[in-house]
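Exam prep: given the inputs below (a chain plus GMT), describe the expected output before reading on.
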Amino acid sequence: MKIGITCYPTVGGSGVIATELGKLLAERGHEIHFITSAIPYRLTETSPNIYYHEVSVNQYEVFQYPPYSLTLASKMAEVVNREQLDVLHVHYAVPHAVCAILARDMTDHPVKVVTTLHGTDITVLGHDSSLRDIIRYAIQRSDEVTAVSDALVEQTKQMLEVGRDIHTIYNFVDERVYGPKTEKKNLKQAYNIDEDEKVLLHVSNFRPVKRVVDVVRTFAAVQAEVSCKLVMLGDGPDREKAWAEAKKLGVDQDVLFLGNQRQVADYLHIADLMLLLSEKESFGLAALEAMACGVPVIGTDIGGIPEVVFHNETGYVVPLGAVELAAQQAVGLLTDPDRMKRFKQRSLDVVEENFSSSRIVAQYEEVYRRTVEDG
Ligand code: GMT
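Solution:
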């Protein structure tokens, strides 16, 4: 099939999933056309089946705002016509699905619109009355809609009162990147972490919904019982708050703020536990990546996290803000080698059984086939 993919080309989980999906589809013989404002962050290798069409927005004095959505719709229509695309697979209802629907209207070539919801457009923008109706329109008028967890399907149906089918297709990891440690590389030495010290890890964009202050508080309570370090990967608006909290609690010497790093798996390979204590999370790709490397997760009982982190099997699920409980669970796990071994193995098994790339990519292929055959 010939498939156009549009996503935000940045470091966020939705861009990662869209790009990894495109790469795997290309390996399976499909022709993939990325239609994005920049080369996606994860599109690093060349492949004869992958094409890139840049959406570059011109700024004209008559426009108060750059017309990204219109330029994107127009570029999508141009690519559909020229390349005879079968499907436009867009990540996010606004603006991407709206642009794809417009492009479908603009072309003579029959193209189907498949929309994947990743959460923020529902859980954040869905509350905005100025956008609610257009999000609903984008969902209703797409040919197929998928969401990354059952929780997000339910939330979308409830919040936006949409009656149509929305299918859950979980996120996945590229097993060639995220898997148990095989190389000898050991970052512990590089960061002056003692071999017998435990490592807790958090990865996010440090938006307020990620509750990075709770992560630091949990760590401080764990550190009172177990010798450990906290590695914070990523960057964003609440970095300063997290740092200030670490200082206030007297653990700043043991918290490493490493900013955005490309090789997240290298850090997962020295981690004993991942903390994901968000107040909104439609899936929690960071948790899945950790589990794929055999790292158990403590996550909040929010959105899609309990569908990824199996409570008492691959980690623990705790209520939002329950810092003491999270710390208690962490200490219990870190000080019980048998339980830790069991949780690590179960994490690997759960990823293989439920979130393997081959299983998930096949589910997307089935969605494309169904919508194209529907005519
Ligand atoms: O979490 C973010 O701030 C980034 C956002 C994105 O668009 O990349 O992540 C969303 O999509 C990811 C991939 O499906 C999910 O793993 C995240 O849970 C989801 N974030 C939220 O729902 C807040």
